[in-house]
Specification:
heterodimer, A: mainly alpha, Four Helix Bundle (Hemerythrin (Met), subunit A), 6 helices, about 80% helix, elongated, B: mainly alpha, about 0% strand
Chain lengths: ~150, ~230
């Protein structure tokens, strides 16, 4: 029985940190990819550098969502809450990570397209905004579901 | 079998200007010198493969190879070198097959007999088929090369400019077809450089652009070294 408690507790701790760690990985990769595109575009164009860098920072929101979910899960819970914390933490973290990486690719494409046609800057960001919406879904419902975890 | 990382060359691709729509450009958006500078960001092995692709395709286009055997050998070497990149392999194969079909049209136009069985005269999957269908107007390959009948007609009419334009358009379409899903990887870089070559070839044939370029060079020369051209203008 003690072993089960230890396993549940370990799983719980993994679940607590997973949204932050996985969301962070997504933001790191996403911002790095979009940032490379921004640097390349700066080499090629004569202006509008600020907006390229701004777009490259878009995937940084995933780590913020991850931090909020981490603090929400990191509360005094019963030992039986471990599997629930593990599931919520890892799954929401995966959603944040993948959305961060893919959003970085979309931001890089938006920068590339804007370079050729500056007038489509806003429209080219729509796909990245849609991906951001999915990340927000994962974030919000992780918070909603975590409210139902057993506390005793 | 991989085409490399999908985001391997994000910065390099983003640093290259948009090439625009085919055959509408008035000038090259980036000079060869600047392009070479940017391509300095390529990994050594990728730079070598890109150079091999450019050299081999240019050699086949301009018939610079010493013999047909040498040309086919260089094409086979290129195909072997691109096996790690499925998209590039298919692209190079299609380009070489297109040129083989064009070479067959020219040979037939010249009155040559069909190539002997197992002789080395072209590259790709259709050499044997074309030799067997030598007397058929389109070699029975219109379903594979829809441009063949038009190319044959232009060749017969002696319209070399029209034929060159048709080939450039078909090459551009081929590059477009393989560009899907390749935004920032090595294949994207190769596609960009091959497109750049097409634009350069097109502009080289544009008399208006050539005249404008000549005028610009003369003006520049007169501005920077006014004495150097004085004897000619006297």
């Amino acid at each position: 029985m003690n072993e089960m408690v230890i396993v549940f507790a370990a799983g719980g701790w993994i679940g607590v940190f997973a949204p932050m760690a996985l969301g962070g990985i997504g933001s790191i990769i996403g911002c790095a990819v979009a940032g490379q595109a921004a640097i390349g575009a700066i080499l090629e164009t004569d202006g509008g550098y600020g907006r390229y860098i701004g777009v490259a920072a878009m995937p940084s929101s995933q780590i913020i969502y991850g931090i909020v979910v981490m603090f929400t899960l990191n509360q005094a819970l019963s030992n039986t809450a471990g599997p629930g914390i593990l599931a919520i933490g890892v799954l929401s973290g995966l959603a944040l990570m993948i959305s961060g990486i893919r959003q970085g690719h979309l931001c890089a494409s938006a920068i590339q397209a804007t370079k050729a046609k500056p007038e489509i800057f806003g429209l080219s960001l729509a796909p990245a905004a849609i991906v951001e919406g999915f990340a927000v879904f994962a974030f919000i419902f992780a918070l909603v579901i975590s409210a139902g975890l057993p506390t005793e | 079998m991989t085409d490399g990382g999908a985001t391997q060359y994000v910065m390099l691709m983003a640093s290259l200007p948009h090439l625009g729509r085919p055959f509408t450009q008035k000038q090259l958006p980036i000079s060869r010198y600047r392009l070479e500078q940017r391509l300095g960001l390529l990994a050594e092995v990728d730079a070598a493969l890109l150079a091999q692709i450019e050299t081999t395709l240019a050699r086949h286009r301009s018939h610079l190879a010493e013999t047909e055997t040498a040309a086919v050998a260089s094409a086979d070497a290129l195909l072997a070198a691109t096996t790690r990149h499925p998209t590039l392999y298919a692209l190079v194969r299609d380009q070489l097959e297109m040129r083989t079909a064009l070479a067959a049209l020219r040979r037939r136009q010249r009155g040559d007999p069909p190539p002997a069985p197992r002789s080395v005269w072209g590259v790709g999957r259709w050499t044997g088929w074309m030799a067997r269908q030598w007397s058929v107007a389109d070699f029975g390959l219109t379903c594979v090369f829809p441009w063949l009948p038009e190319a044959a007609a232009l060749l017969t009419a002696g319209d070399s400019v029209g034929l060159e334009r048709l080939i450039l358009a078909q090459s551009w379409n081929l590059l477009d077809r393989y560009a899907l899903g390749h935004d920032f990887d090595f294949a994207a870089i190769v596609l960009y450089v091959l497109r750049w070559n097409l634009v350069a070839r097109w502009l080289a044939q544009n008399p208006e652009a050539a005249l404008a370029r000549f005028d610009a060079l003369v003006t520049q020369a007169l501005d920077t070294h006014p004495d150097s051209l004085a004897p000619l203008l006297a």
